[in-house]
Amino acid sequence: MRRDWVAGVAPLMLLLLFCVLGPVVWPADPAALDAGAPLARPCLAYPLGTDALGRDELARLIHGGRETLSVAVPATLLAFMLGTGYGLIAGFAPRIAARVLMRLLDALLALPSLVVLLCGAALLPRTGFTVSVLIGVTAWPGLARLVRTEMVSLRGRDFAHAARQLGADPLHMARRHFLPNIARLLGVNATFLLGDSVLALSALSFLGLGVPPPAASWGSMLQSGIGLMDLGAWWLILPPGFLIAGSLFAAAAVGRMFFSEEKEQKTFALRWRKG
Amino acid sequence: MGRAAETFATLFFLVTLTFALAHAVPDGPAYAILGLKAGPDRVRALNAQLGLDATVWGQYATWWWHVLHANLGISYLQNRPVVSVIGAYAGRTAVLYSVATGLAVVAAMGLGWLHGVFYRSWAGRVCSAIEIFLYAMPGFFIATVLGMVFSSWLHLLPAAGMVDLHQAAPGFGDRAAHMVLPAASIALFVAPWLARIFAQGVHEELSRDYVRTAQARGVGFGSILLRHVTPNAIRPMVTMLGLSLPAIFSGNVVVESVFDYPGIGWLLWRSAVAHDYPVLVGIVLVVGVATMLGNLAADLVNAWLDPRVTYAA
After folding, report:
1. What is the pLDDT of residues B168-202, one digit of tens each?
2. pLDDT tens, B104-135?
3. Rounded mean pLDDT of chain B?
4. How far from B294 is each of A14, A104, A271, B291, B300, CA to CA, in Å?
5. Substitution target from A12, A68, A95, A106 for chain B, most B beta carbons within 10 A
6. Nearest Cα residue in chain A from B296
C-alpha cells in the first residue's frame, strides 16, 4: 500500500518541485541572450543546451513550467467547481429538468475540446487570465457527468432516504452526505483535470494560440523547436515534450493509485484525453 | 427517451450553441469584415444586409432555417460558401481519418491479444507499460518526434503537405507516402487506450465457461481466441472508439497542423488564426454532428455484433 502511494504521488511531486524549486536550484536568467552560443549542445554551462537566440533551455523550461502552471491551476479550479456544481444540480433536479441538463451535457461532450478552445482563442483577447478561463470553461463536462452518475446511485441509498425524511434540504444533503461520499473521486478527478489543463494549454500554445510572447510555455517551446528540427536540435524538442507527457503521466499515476483496473475502465471512459 | 429522441435533443442544443458562438464575435461581425476603422454608416448597412438588425429570436429562427438548408454563410477569407469550403477539406480528413483509425484498430488488436493472453505475466506487464507510455504522449509530441526521426534524420518520408509540389502529376505512391506520418501519429495516439480495453476484454472472456467447454471439445487455442473470444472482447473497444471520436478529432487537428495536411483540422487552425468566424462556427457544427453520428454508428455496430444489445428506437 505504501509503495503504491509513493509511486502514485511521486511523479506529480517531482513536476511541482521542478517548477517551484527550479529557479532556486538553477538560478539562470531564462531571457538572457548569449550571442556567442546559439543552438549550443547540452554542456556544463547549459545542461540542456541553448535555443536559436542563445537562451538557456533549462532555465526556460523551468520558467515555462511556472507559466504553464499559473494558467493550468486556476483553469483546473474553475473546471472543478463548474463540473461538481453542474453534476450536483443535475443530480438534484427533477426528472424533466435533469434530462434537459444531461442532453446539454451530451452536446458539449460531442464537441472536441480543441475545437471549442480554438474558437474561443480566436474570439477572445488572449491574456493569461482569459486563456485560463477558456480552458476551465471547456474542461468540466466530463467531471459533471461523473458526479451526476455517482449522485444517481447515492440518492437511492437508505441514508439518503432517511436524511430526506428528516427534512434535509438539498444544500445540506450535498454538503453533509453526497460530497463526503464522492470526495475520493473528486480528488482524483481534480488531478486528471490538472493534466487535461496542462495538455489543453500546451496544445493551444503549440498552435500559436496560447498566451502570447514573451510568456513561454512548454507547448510554445516545443513549437519553436520544430522550426529548428532540420538543424538536429533535439534538445529543443524532447525536453518540453517529455515534460508535457510527464504531466499527463503524473495525473494518470494518481488515478491508478486509487482505482482497481475494472474501475479504471469506467472512470477513464468518460474523460478521455484531448489532444 | 429513446436513442433517436436523445440524438435529436442533443442536435437541438448543438445548433443553439453554434448560434450563441456566432453571436459571441467581439463587436459583431461587421467590424470583423470591414475592419475596426469602419464608419457607423457602413456598419449599419452591412448589419442590415446580414440580417443582424432583426430581433435575436428572428435571427435564431433564420439560423435554424439556414442550417436545415445547409447554408452556413460565406467565408470571410475565401469569399466562398462555408459549406463548400468545409466540404473540400473534410474529404481529405475523412481519408486520413479512415486510414488512421484502421491502423489504430489493427495495432490495438495486435497489442491487445498479446496483453490479454499474457495478462498477469511479464509480457503483459511490458504491454501495459507500452500502453501507459504512449497514452501519456500528447498527439502533437508524437507527431513531432515521428517527423524528426523519419523525415529530418532518416530522410525516409515527407513531413509536409499532401503531395510533392515539385512533381507535375503526383501519383498514388506519392500521396500514400505523404499519408504515412500523419496517419501513424494519429494511430499511435489512439491505439494504446483501445488496446487496453481490448486486452481487458480478452482477459475476462478467456476465463468464461464457454472457453473451457471449447477446450474440452478439443478446439485449438488459436481458434478459441479468434472465433470465440475476439467477437465478444471487441465490443467495448467499438463503444470506446465511438466515444473517443471527439478526442481523436482534437488529435487530428494538431497532427494536421504539424504535417501541414490540408484537412478540416488544418482549416480549423488557420481559420482560428485568421479570425474567419463563419468557417469556425461551421466546423463546430459539422464536427459536432459527425461525432454524434459516430456514437450512433458505434451503438449500431455493437447491436450488430451482439444481437442481445438493443436500443429503444
Report:
1. 666 777 777 778 888 888 888 888 888 888 888 88
2. 999 999 888 888 888 888 888 888 888 888 87
3. 80
4. 40, 18, 17, 5, 10
5. A106
6. A110
pLDDT in tens, B79-108: 788 888 888 888 888 888 888 889 999 999
**Scanning every residue of chain A, which has its alpha carbon at the shortest distance from the alpha carbon of B197?**
A265
| pLDDT more than 70, % of chain A | 85
Q: Does the ipTM exceed 0.90?
A: no
* Residue B106 confidence (pLDDT): 92
CB-nearest partner of B283 from A115, A206, A225: A115
At the fourth CATH level, the homologous superfamily of domain A25-274 is MetI-like (1.10.3720.10)
